[in-house]
Amino acid sequence: MNGRREDGKSPVFPFLPFMGKGAQRADRGGVYEIYKKRDKTMKEKTIKHILTLEGDGREVLVEGWIRTRRDSKEVSFIAVNDGSTMNSIQVVLERTFPGYDEINPRLVNGASVSIKGKLVPSLGKEQSAEVSPLEIKILGDASPEEYPLQKKRHSFEFLREIAHLRPRTNTFGSVMRVRNAMSFAIHKYFNDNGFVYVHTPIITGSDCEGAGEMFHVTNFDLNNIPRVEGKIDYTKDFFGKEASLTVSGQLNAEIYALALKNVYTFGPTFRAEKSNTSRHLAEFWMIEPEMAFCDITGNMDTAEHFIKYILRYVLDNCADDMNFFNSMIEKGIIENLEHIAASEFGRITYTDAVNELKKSGQKFEFPVEWGIDLQSEHEKFLTQEVYKKPVIVTDYPKDIKAFYMKLNDDGKTVRAMDVLVPRLGEIIGGSERENDYNKLLGRINDMGLNEKDYWWYLELRKYGSAPHSGFGLGFERLIQFVTGMQNIRDVIPFPRCVDTLDF
RNA sequence: UCCUCUGUAGCUCAGUCGGUAGAGCAGUUGGCUGUUAACCAAUUGGUCGUAGGUUCGAGUCCUACCGGGGGAGCCA
């Protein structure tokens, strides 16, 4: 085989369009040659691809799981789905098909099949082409009396209990395809914008990340923990010191930003907080850009530009899945995202936001006062009622924010920023970092932290310090925002939460 | 951790004033039709989360515990 398709058209090379013209030329001897030698790419075998073809009698191989079968007197209609798209392909099995009586009862919801057949025009209304089978192999049966997934709607709570099967549903298939597209878009955005992807560590020895409760990492025999004078002797542990799972890659990312200018991290993050809400996970994925020679304004610009880019990318590349969310999960979400991608985010200082909330006349469970942290109800009121779009709140009181945030000239506020979005509230937290050695040292001491723990962080301000900024974006929250899924446990393949560690 | 709602058939739910358990879907059987989460008919299926208590009698009222949802806090 020489890479030609049966229809005589050029073969499809899935990732060449993402490369620049120069890259395509340069690859003629490399990637291109490798692809040319392949009979069929994996992409060409997907139902998503087959559904784009014309029903001109060509032979196709359909491999997937049966979603439903409808029997008629003369024919059976089988919907096969392989997750490459939310759409299923229809296979029409004539009663005269050899072995019909033996095969047809096994073609049930959930069974996996490999069907060779001809792609022909459909007599039905909802598809232009369908498969007329030549050969049907049942690869894996699924007992109808036991298979938990039905054709009807299930509750998300039930599906969480069968997380090994839920990706076969429309909703979770769509969520995971969109999650994938967003992951790709994130890397593409940063790559195209001069950022270097830095792999910050998962295991950390610094308990100074300051973003929440940490999970401990130990190699001790827990039934026999070495102690000295009653206290745990960490010098005997694997790393010779206390170790944890990271709660943020930020401090490490700052190191690389102050060497490579623009960097980002995108990896798992762990918080041992006993948060029991629809917006929290114990293990989640976080995106943390960090930019040298960048102040809080540049930070806000990047955050806004980035979010709009991701929204635009999903709207342009995941139309089928987004239409599903739009009709089944959150009515009007497409219009909502289109609006957000096209409009300027609101920008307001904390001080102005407090005044705005006070004069709104709105009654809050927690009264608003300068100096308190904004509560969820305040954040949602700002973004949903006042602005009706995302809003960036900046310059918070220093006492309610982290030690590393840059102090403003007023001595009372820091250059922090939170991006608030409708439906969810806070989706991004970030700041310009304090780059003055003495001011940072002062903040560390003021907050009762041990400056020895921060020696390398302080040295970054001692040698070639530069203004720099960054933010953290919760990936799953962004997926919630894009898909309209209400519970964060339903936008990650296998959620980890308090008292939940299944699968 | 706190507040709140909830737990009934494989799934989604109803169950009145405390009177002894029901629907839709799924499954099974039959019928019908180029069907579109097909349709029509029949039918199987429940220790009402668990343990106590009140009562002649508890799915229903009370107590405790367990599971799940929503909200709050913490945060992304």
Amino- and carboxy-terminal Cα gap = 42 Å
Strand order of the largest sheet: 6-12-13-18-17-16-15-14
**Cα shape:** elongated
Class from helix and strand fractions: alpha+beta
Mean pLDDT: 89
List the uncertain runs: 1-24
Sheet having the most strands: 8 strands, mixed
Description:
This protein is α+β, with helices and mostly antiparallel strands and 503 residues long. Helices cover 30% and strands 23% of the residues. The chain has 15 helices and 18 strands. The strands form four sheets. An eight-stranded mixed sheet has the order 6-12-13-18-17-16-15-14, with helices on both faces. The chain has a five-stranded antiparallel sheet with strand order 3-2-1-4-5, with no helix packed on it. A three-stranded antiparallel sheet has the order 7-11-8, with no helix packed on it. Strand 2 (75-81) and strand 3 form a beta hairpin. Helix 6 packs across helix 8, helix 6 (170-192) crosses helix 9 (319-329) and helix 8 packs across helix 10 (333-342). 32% of the residues are buried. It binds one RNA strand of 76 nucleotides through strand 1, strand 2, helix 5, strand 13 and strand 17.
Summarize the structure.
The protein is α+β, with helices and mostly antiparallel strands and about 500 residues long. It has 15 helices and 18 strands.
Task: Record keyword descriptors for this entry.
503 residues, alpha+beta, eight-stranded mixed beta sheet, five-stranded antiparallel beta sheet, 15 helices, RNA-binding
